[in-house]
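Hello Y.,

Per our agreement to keep a running log of every chain we model this quarter, I'm adding this entry. I've kept the format consistent with earlier entries: sequence first, then predicted structure.
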Amino acid sequence: MVFFQRIFKFIAFLVLIPLGIIIIGSWYYIEYQLPDIEALNTVQLQVPLQVFSRDSKLIAEYGEKRRIPVPYDQIPQELIHAVLATEDQRYFQHPGIDIPGLVRASMLLIATGHKVQGGSTITMQVARSFYLTRHKTFGRKLREIFLALKIDHRLSKQKILELYLNKIFLGNRAYGVAAAAQIYYGKTLDQLTLDEAAMLAGLPKAPSTLNPLANPVAAKKRRDHVLTRMYESGYIDAKALHTALAAPLNAHYHEVKTEVDAPWFGEMVRKALEEMYGDSIYTDGFNVYTTLDSKLQEYANQAVLTELLAYDQRHGYRGPEKNFGTPDLLDVKSWEKKLANIPAVNTLEPAIVIDITSHTATVLRANGQLVIIPWEGLSWARRQINADYLGPRPHTTKDILKLGDLVRIVPSKQTGWRLAQIPQAQASLVTLDPSTGGIRALVGGFDFQQSNFNRITNATRQPGSSFKPFLYSAALDKGYTLATLINDAPVVYQNPTDESIWRPQNAERRFYGPTRLRDGLIHSHNLVSIRLLEQIRVSYAINYATRFGFVPSQLPAELSLALGTAAVTPLQMAAAYAIFANGGFRVTPYAIEDTRDTRGKILYQARPLIACQNCPLDTEDNSRAPRVISAENAFLITSVLHDVIEHGTASEARTLKRLDLAGKTGTTQNQVDAWFIGYNPSLVTLAWVGFDQPQSLHEYGAQAALPIWMAFMKAALQNESDTPLDQPSGITNVRIDPLTGKRATARSPVAQFEYFMRPYVPDKDTPADLQAVAPASQQSDGQELY
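Predicted structure for the entry above:
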């Protein structure tokens, strides 16, 4: 017996010694090859790009993986207990690997020939997810074990658990528990109930198939298993268990909760960042803070929606989108399914007409609700015969609708609901801070899902009469005054290349004779502008317009430039008008204030050039925007554009009852584009209306675009006091005879005041239409004067 014991010990010695050497050797070999796990203390998880407004409200999120990293101390204990109860019960006791668990898994593998239960700890899963592949090999498993031991030795248990709970995939693009709470429940972690925490804790086993959206039955079974394990582990009592087991799933897919509806602006920021940093913006967790004001954006959205619908309704009802036939009221569910496949456009919901009376219509919404539209919400719908002709006014609902019609409805404060239709025209709005160029609000069209084309930044359109102030500014810089007389009379031009004849007209088809420049711009007389451009020369005007940010290739070298036949973007026009608003400085529109990483470190900081009216001229300040026109010139143009609102083509805006507003309407030939660009010292706002495929709007800028501008500015300036423009020291106010432009005598019965730059104040006997040559100090730029 003793002999056999000695033989057994000898054999064991011969086996264990080499085995020990192999294990120790493997340890040192693998340890040498193992990565440095110190990087786990500062690991950068893949986090999507988030874009915020200047008041820190979420505009948009971009990235394949939805992840919200949270520190350990912000993860609820209930959720931690739920994870430990099912994934790693001895987590806080073992050294990174659970030897009894590994032994059990190995024994079952030997006994059954296939994997029955896993032996991986949370630490081993962290090792695998950060450093190893998912190929199931013995070598990988051995590296995983050694790496887990190393991680457990170097990092705290809390840090390892934090890494695990922020890294794991939990289905539906959710990575980490915070993102999963948002996606499945629309909640933050601290808002989760016990049953919801258990649901999330059960997902790591099979996130794609056990989640409550893909398989509610299996998900509930898994959740109940987690709750039972929590009870057996002593984390919850019997009462909490039974309450949680009885709770319904309550899980639904939740999109990212944006707080600001500014999709065109968000997309503009995304493209700019991609150009700066490449594809890393989608994974490196950039937080971008922008110039957008969330409240102004809300006003802009509402103004475009309300006034574009109003424009569309003025041009009649085009009929239903479709007719489904007479609805079967006993089969409402099938009608709901039809509606479920039809997306809303902006706030315009699809609905089906299921009942009609003489002056009401009952429609079915996609959510199954029935709503009644009263006659006040229907009576606008005169049938559109063609683009500019409407049928007779409807007398009953049957003149408008039929049973089974697929229509659009929109909420109404007056009627509850009203009939609507998707506009065929588009509208856009942008507002800038004239002192910096920061974009405060931007709407690029009617509905982003319908068309993501940004009409503010990318649409190249003719500005019409809204371009005229730049020509008048050029004339003032050349010695003309606002009292200069230009003859508003017929004119005929012949094109020498094809001998075609051009007979420009005023919009009213009238001629006004000798007209002061102030009146010519207030009332937007085309012939005054054409004759003025002819006198100052087209080449001079184009060269001068470059001061406002336009490039010569955009501007036709012909007299039609006076009517706004340039090709410009709305953003260019808004930036150009900012020069008048800020007193003569050229600022550049920008959207990004700063870009930060996940730790809050600023990676990029905007340094806009700022309009500085009171800075000394000899001060060398790199942050000051360049002066491109004099303060006197900007003041004179603003005084005229103020009168455009008080007495001219935008007189409807007087209803805003403000003294600090100035602006200009614009309408192109055949009424293809409608503009209004206006400002006060704090905001420059542009509104545009038109069709993507150019066709007539059958309305002028004052009818189509001005109401959008007014609706926005009324809301945007409601809490701001009037801030009239300060008169520069180089401006003087002189009484003139409005009929002659001459300086008025004391006995003149019709005299009125006019502003002049001091060098160009007319003498008592000198008519204002005899242009003065600009002083030598103003000719130093070498521009052609005549």
